[in-house]
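Why does this matter for the project? Reviewers at the last site visit asked to see concrete outputs rather than summary tables. In response, this paragraph embeds two records directly. Each consists of the residue sequence and, immediately after it, the corresponding structure tokens. Nothing has been edited or filtered.
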Amino acid sequence: MQILRETKLEGLRLARKVGRQKVLEILLKKKLGGRGGANFPVAKKWETALGVKADERYVICNADEGEPGTFKDKFILKNNFETMIEGLLIAAYVLRAKRCFIYLRGEYDYLREELEEKIKEVLEKSKMKVSIEIVRGAGAYICGEETAIIQSIMGNRGSSMYKPPHPTISGLWGKPTVLNNVETLTCVPQALVYEDWNPDYRLFSISGDVNHPGVYEWELGVKMSTILDVVKPREKIKAMSFGCFGGIMPVKKSSSVSQETICKGNCQHGAFSIIFIGERHNIVDICLSIAKFYTYESCGKCTPCREGTIRLVNLLKKIKSKKVNEGDIKLLKEFAEHIQETSLCGLGQSCGNHILTSLKYFKKDYMRYIK
């Protein structure tokens, strides 16, 4: 990723020169996908919103980076915000949007003043009649979900809405709305300007039991041995967690890190955050901590998530008390599966991933508590 302290708006100038349709063609050809986890083609999302007849459209930059272990968007906001703003303006140009929003995580509010200055500078250089408003998030994990962000920006309680309609059809105030995260928008001008731009490069947020945590850029397919050589584990690594929702799986030095290999292990790569877990940790303790997080962050709108997350915590506490048998382990698995299958949004649908994957790979840690 190019770090440009003073943007020349080359991407925006090129976009206006070639026109909206050509921009969509270039982004589709370059295979730019969303960097928030879904990897949905950016061009197709924009094209859908552009195809809806409406007198107004909106663009939202999702800077509500609330997934534990993920901090690469903060790195961009601190070091490459000009390029991110340029990507936001390119999206506004393609979609003919006059109003844009940056939904900024509440804990990142200390970046707001500098960000507002840069927005003003870039808008002056662009000479575009577009407004960019920063909306401060209220600290809710659920607002990482697109429909919850929309509700929050409109002044409502941040909770997920039923889909369809999708935001590209009916989003902010019932108008077509495009949401892209910080890294995605930062990649837009780069994909337009650089012929050799590689869609397989990703920003990795690395933390946990390592000596050199931080944000790294690697190509998909990078060997796990390469990552470990760089970050220097503090102790023998037992497992890795992909944030709270991504699940937990063993670390194999010979394996490659890509969307396919992670998903094949029943985990989700998300925004490529990796929390390395040393062998001194018991996986049940890790799962209990994550389960408590989900209980606290559930918006409470749907019953499976609201009630189910509490039941998962209680079962894990019961396991820790050593007053359980194998039937309780089976019940834990069934609960996690049921909550995932019946919940409304991604929070409930993923809140059992850490339990299901840990039971698959680290069942011995659970069996220690069985009489």
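We now turn to the second protein, recorded in exactly the same manner.
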Amino acid sequence: MAVSRLAGPAARRTLWLTLAICFVSLAFAAGSPGAKAKESGKPPKLDAKAWIAIDARTGEPVAENKADKRLPMASTTKLMTAYLAMRRLTLRKKVPATNYQGIPGESLMGLEVGQKVSVRDLLYGLVLLSGNDAAVTLAKAVSGTEPRFVALMNATAVKLGLTNTHYNNPIGLDGKSHYTSARDLASLSRTLMEMPRFRQIASSRTAKLRSYDPPLEIETINHFVLNNSWARGIKTGHTDKAGYVLASDGRKRATELIGAVIGTPTETSRDVETVKLLDYGFSRYRKRVPVLPDRAVVKVPVKYEDAGLALVSKRPIPIGLRKGEQAKVTTVVPGEVEGPIKEGQRIGRAAVSVDGDLIDTVPLFAAQAVEKPSLIDKATDNILLLVIALMVVVFAILAVVAFVRRRRQSRMRRRLRRVTRYPG
């Protein structure tokens, strides 16, 4: 009220108007569909023809919609091209660029006919720049001709269990039987992201093409990767028929999710809807760290000592768990250790698993040093054994003495009976 008296009528009206706007904004936010979805835990509705998010660890879906519908895939086709190139060619191999005549507006790496380029650099150009010329060059390097490569693509799709996928070309141009599904796209992406070299390529923001002279630095055209620090890839795509497509990978809360969004109306919506989808997926997980650095994972008995030796890991094992999941820590360690043991000496290992799936394994190290046991330590440790042995010896001696005494008494009684029977 003091502010109102000092400010005057105009200021008071401004203050009341500001408060009213804030109140309406809060009410609208509380009643908005996004807020309700968050509170109720319902999957978001995306502006796309189909989508899915899967757990990269298990392959299990977290959210999906029309995930098995066959749709054009645009340049996410190049994921299969990359897969076959990495399986059939060495990264250091240099191959001649093919004579590819693209139409205006196509994504190109900018290869010159006959130019010798390493498979590694072609893969970076394929994934980061979505180069159609790189795709055809890799296809011919693998199979000799584009038709033979397309046949290999389709045979590989069958082998990988991609039942709703078929290819007409290695690029992603629309074709009569060129299609995939969100589920197949996510599954192929998961297979690729299990390949360390591809993961490195897909998550790169920039790359240096070393087979160029001088080396050429490129930047990804994937704005999902550029604008989200937690993003790990993977591949964009767009044609008039397919709309905007994105195969994505991200990591939050010690959880890695893979997404596939097909058929958004704009490039911006493709990224926005993907973030919305993956954020929902991450909200279904809680982060746990069953193995922490410098915290005892297990204690093993130390020979000749009462206290056990704590074994620790030098790095953590974080894991994202869904409702109902539990992490299990198992160890492979000696049943007993004996000094001397140095602090930090490696002794055994620990593994974390969830529902039987191995997550990670770490070596375990001694948390402190253990000195070599002295003779007194060994004697003290064996005192009980000595006492028992002594008792056994004493018992044996007493038994022998008792036996001898009974024999002697028996002989005395026999003599006494003879003397009594035949007196002198």
